[in-house]
Amino acid sequence: MARRPLPRMLSNGSAFSRGRELARTAAGGAGDMLHPLITITRGLHRLAGAGRRTWTRTPKDRRGPLLFLAASLVLVVALVPYGPLLGGIGLMAAAAWHGRERRPSGPAGPDEAQVKRLRSLYEALVPYFSAAEDPAPLYAHGGDWTKAFSSPAFDESGRISRLRIRYPAYFKDGEPESRAQIERLLHAKSGRGREYHFRWNEEGNELTLTVLGPLPTDIAAQRFVTAPGETVLGFTDPTGVQRTLPLTHGEERRDVPPVVWRTGPRSTEPHLLIVGGPGSGTTTLVRSVALQALQYGDILIVEGGGTGEFACLAGREGVLSVESTPAGATASLEWATHETERRLIAANRSRQSGHRPPDDIRHPLWILLDRPSVLGHIAAADGRRDPRELVQVPLRHGRAANVTVVVAEQFDGLEGLPDTVRQYARARVVLGPATPEEVESVLGAPPHTTPADEVPPGRGYARLGTGPVHRLQVPATPDPYDDATGEHHRQAVLDLLPVRDRPAVEAVPAKPLMVKATASEG
Question: Where are the transmembrane segments (predicted)?
Fold first, then answer.
């Protein structure tokens, strides 16, 4: 029996193909024709959603005025000539703008070179974050780095600028040695020459690596907006403090986060210890503190270096004395000891009698010692009393007597400081190049950042009591009488100096204070 051939339309698929193409063409044409309508509809939907969210976030007591304002706008548009037409055109334009298709501006993930860098960093962490008895290791050679790394960011050169790292729960993140190993590895693998901040989250087993920008080094000495008893030690990162200060730099105005040290009877860190190497900026910080202290109190300066760094302050109003010899330093510090004791006695008498303490007791007194170890060696060679032993009474009782002690010393002279300095000077600053071990020995805690390769003068770390360790940049406060000082910085310091009230050659002017003390006690 002969097989009947199939119909031409069923045996040949060209008809179906032409039908499908015709349908696609019609759909494409309809899509092109309806694309503006689709865009406007999508935009109206987004605008309605935004209005709904705004209405939900608005407090109930403000919804009535908001509704009245919207109704007033609609009424004004309706009454204005051609208002409805222009309002409709504006609404369609806004809907078209918000309904447009938004494409991502950048790549969805890291490129090939960045992936290679992340994979190399992952392989380097395997020996530290893996254990042989782990049944499902997060880190393994040839493993998936995307499970351990998240939120990677890169700079213009392709190096890592931010990265969140997960690590297993059995890693000893509570031991400083284990943390230091990981931080050194990340510093080496992510690129040297930059400063990194490490934030350990022990509860979530995460480590966040962030590249820190350089601190500003062009801020000159100036009048800072602070309250009495507040001293600006320098400036730090915006994530470290919750406060900013308005500063001037020529005609520029900007806000910079400061490290503020609070002194006075209610301070928990009434005294300051500054440590650094030669040329690190310790004397600059003492000079900056002196200029700020002169706004509200009197200062007594003992300079052990003998270089005349504080000659600009001699004979100024509020500067009791500037001493650079063992004999003068001993006499000045003996007077400061007696003055501290006198203030304590007068304050005790005032409290017992129920009266307000005298004004001369409430007036702050600052004792600034720059490199006292040099004077201690000279005094020992001459058979004199060591001036460093005379600050024990102001250190112990200065908080109650409104007396503040600032000691600046180099690393090689730390061993000669009395134990009272380390015990009572709980506000600490380390300036200049220093190893993490040296920083920790002074501050009592290691910094959470890697050291910089090039350390400018006045750059270091600060810690107030048991608080966190901050990066610090001291404001430029050079000696205005130094020929190497720039004209801008010289004039900035000269503008802050008080007027001269006596010749600069005069020594300790203790008589005016003693006269006021006698009058107040009587």
Answer: 66-97
> What pLDDT shows up at residue 167?
95
Q: What's CA 151's distance to the chain center, in Å?
A: 23
The one-character DSSP state at 357 is: P
Beta-carbon neighbour count of residue 128 at 10 Å? 13
What pLDDT sits at residue 102?
65
Look at the block and give the residue holding tokens 């020594």. 507
One domain, residues 201 and 299: no
Instruction: Classify burial at 239, counting beta carbons within 10 Å of its beta carbon; exposed 0-12, middle 13-18, buried 19 or more.
Output: exposed
Do 204 and 240 have their domain in common? no
pLDDT score of 216 more than 60 = yes
DSSP symbol at 497: S
Give a yes or no: residue 517 inside a domain: no
Mean pLDDT of the chain: 85
- 320 and 462 both lie in a single domain: yes
Domain range for 463 is 230-495
- From residue 315, how far is each of 62, 120, 450, 512, 518 by CA, in Å? 63, 63, 43, 14, 24
- Is 437 contained in some domain? yes
pLDDT, tens digit (0-9, with 9 covering 90-100), for 285-341: 999 999 999 999 999 999 988 788 999 999 999 999 999 888 899 999 999 999 999
Q: Which of 211, 245, 265 is the last residue of a domain?
A: 211
Q: In what order do the strands lie in the sheet with 160-166?
A: 149-154, 160-166, 206-212, 195-201
Q: What value does the mean pLDDT take over residues 100-125?
A: 79
Q: Is residue 193 domain-shared with residue 237, that is, in the same domain?
A: no
User: Is residue 281 situated within a structural domain?
Assistant: yes
Q: Which residue is listed with tokens 């009587």?
A: 522
Q: How many domains does the chain have?
A: 2
Count of CB atoms situated within 10 Å of the CB of 311 = 15
Q: What is the pLDDT of residues 118-137, one digit of tens each?
A: 999 999 999 999 998 989 89
400 and 349 in one domain?
yes
Backbone angles phi, psi at 270, to 5 degrees: -75, -15
Lowest mean pLDDT among 358-362, 383-387, 394-398: 383-387
pLDDT for residue 45: 82
- Name, in order, each residue with C-beta under 8 angstroms of 206's C-beta and a sequence gap of 6 or more: 164, 165, 166, 167, 200
CATH label of the domain that carries residue 288: 3.40.50.300
Query: What is the pTM for the complete model shown?
Result: 0.73
262 in the same domain as 139 = no
Question: What CATH number should be reported for the domain holding residue 117?
Answer: 3.30.1240
In this predicted model, what pLDDT tens digit does every residue of 266-292 receive, in sequence order?
899 999 999 999 989 999 999 999 999
**Please, which residues have CB within 8 angstroms of residue 22's CB and are 6 or more apart in sequence?**
none
Report d(CA 301, CA 321) in Å as an integer: 6
Is the same domain home to 156 and 252?
no
Same domain for 385 and 455, yes or no, is yes
